[in-house]
Design a protein that fits this description.
Strand content: 35-45%
Distance between the termini: 94 Å
Helix content: 10-25%
Radius of gyration: 27 Å
Order of helices and strands: HEEEEEEEEEEEEHEHHEEEHE
Number of domains: 2
Shape: elongated
Number of strands: 17
Strand order of the largest sheet: 3-6-9-8-7
């Protein structure tokens, strides 16, 4: 009898658990995470506008601030972002990928031919925190706000300066592959005056826009991440690479892009390029020069 009653109690409790558990399970719903689906930028009178568009609403928190360098999350490595100043843009409670793991907004690194906004680079998509480094031509005031229908986070960066149009000479990969020189093509870029040579090199290292990439243009960095110590004297331009330096065995290197980019200016006839360690093959005299690391 005791065993029968115990079994009955167990069965009753089991049934009770099932009846209470079913509604509780049915009440659990998953809230879609805001997902970044597009990044756009355009110039307007007096400012550049950078737009991040989301699906499933806006991120719970968003912010932007100037930083000395952009650090990737979670690796902790420095992210190379072209520009004289860098904004770190962060979205909390947001994702940059679809459920299948594919990037939801396009290219991780993109360049713009705008007076202020030069480059936007992904710096992390980890544990619902989405980060981007934004390279700008000069540190200027900005404001961040949101718009709806569709859901957007907007950054307006002021551009209270005059610019001049210059050329950045990029590798034409299709002509190079076919062996049909010239292997570089000049693209228009706005740069802040009067430091136009410096601005032209900045734009060169930012690389091609998405449209230019589609047309076959590339930036052959030769492992360099940037430049410093640009000087022009007695028609000789001198510039030092930063980061790395290697031709990789190629006959085309970053030197083939730097030289025409600087020679477009009347004050430059010869270009001497130095390695990150400060060496070049012909440091003296009126002649072009490259470091050994850029030899094929």
């Amino acid at each position: 009898m005791y065993q029968f009653r115990a079994a009955a109690i167990v069965l009753a409790l089991t049934g009770l658990g099932s009846s209470l558990g079913a509604p509780a399970m049915a009440a659990v719903t998953s809230t879609p995470v805001p997902t970044l689906i597009a990044i756009r930028a355009a110039h307007h009178p007096g400012y550049d506008r950078l737009v991040f568009e989301f699906r499933n609403g806006l991120p719970a928190e968003r912010g932007a601030r100037y930083v000395s360098q952009v650090i990737a999350d979670p690796s902790g490595k420095r992210v190379s972002v072209a520009g004289s100043a860098r904004l770190l843009v962060r979205f909390f409670g947001a994702s940059g990928h679809n459920p299948d793991g594919r990037i939801s907004y396009g290219a991780l690194r993109r360049t713009y031919a705008l007076p202020g906004v030069m480059q936007v680079v992904n710096a992390g998509d980890f544990e619902a925190v989405l980060r981007f480094g934004v390279g700008v031509a000069r540190r200027e005031p900005f404001r961040i706000f949101t718009l709806s229908n569709p859901s957007r986070v907007v950054i307006d960066l002021t551009t209270p300066y005059r610019t001049a149009q210059v050329h950045a000479y990029l590798l034409d990969s299709r002509r190079f592959k076919g062996g049909h020189p010239p292997f570089v093509r000049g693209v228009d870029r706005p740069v802040i005056t009067p430091a136009v040579a410096f601005g032209a090199l900045q734009r060169l290292f930012a690389g091609p826009t998405q449209a230019e990439l589609a047309s076959g243009l590339r930036f052959a960095a030769s492992r360099a991440t940037g430049f410093k110590n640009l000087t022009i004297s007695d028609q000789v331009a001198r510039v030092q690479l930063t980061g790395g330096c290697s031709s990789g065995g190629s006959t085309f290197t970053v030197a083939d892009e730097i030289m025409p980019t600087l020679r477009q200016f009347p004050s430059v006839r010869w270009v001497k390029i130095y390695s990150p360690s400060g060496h070049t093959e012909r440091p003296a005299g009126h002649s072009d020069s490259i470091p050994v690391c850029l030899e094929p």
